[in-house]
Design brief:
The chain contains three helices and seven strands; from the N terminus they run βααββββββα. The protein has about 160 residues and is α+β, with helices and mostly antiparallel strands. Strand 3 and strand 4 form a beta hairpin.
């Protein structure tokens, strides 16, 4: 896809990105602080708080790393700046981006023809079965433009297209 013309790009909004990372890190720090400074009487609860705090810190770091990436749309499909293919245009059946669609914040969901390996880049995109969610800490106008471009590419392909 490197030699393909770029039709749209989607990158995380800096304020939303840092707000999400900061809140998740603050939650992790607070949970660990509570577990150590005012430990519950039951040791299992203290362990629970420490594990949950550690997971929150891990998620903050994973979100920070994932939202450094950019998603690029070409006529072949969507790929992130790490080189991982998110979805091929030939595999996309439809795009859901309505108000009541199950989708990431400021994003959209793709319905694929076949299942793919589950993947998650917190704050940017996820793949589960035949669904791909794109969005999270991304700007709404960029996401909307990319979704419209994907809809146009799928419509251009025609209804009788086999993957």
């Amino acid at each position: 896809m490197a030699d393909q013309e770029i039709l749209a790009e989607l990158r995380a909004s800096a304020p939303r990105r840092w707000m999400g990372v900061a809140i998740m890190a603050a939650l992790g720090g607070l949970l660990i602080y509570i577990a150590l400074v005012t430990p519950p009487e039951v040791l299992a609860w203290q362990a629970f708080l420490l594990v949950l705090g550690g997971l929150s810190l891990w998620l903050a770091q994973a979100t920070r790393r994932a939202t450094e990436l950019t998603l690029t749309l070409t006529e072949e499909g969507i790929v992130d700046s790490a080189g991982e293919t998110v979805a091929q245009i030939g595999d996309i059946e439809g795009v859901s981006r309505g108000m009541f669609a199950m989708k990431p914040s400021n994003g959209f969901t793709l319905r694929l023809r076949r299942r793919d390996v589950g993947r998650w880049r917190p704050g940017l995109w996820w793949r589960f079965g035949k669904r791909v969610g794109i969005g999270g800490v991304t700007p709404g106008p960029q996401s909307k433009m990319m979704a419209q471009m994907i809809e146009a590419l799928v419509a251009q392909r025609g209804p009788g297209h086999d993957a």
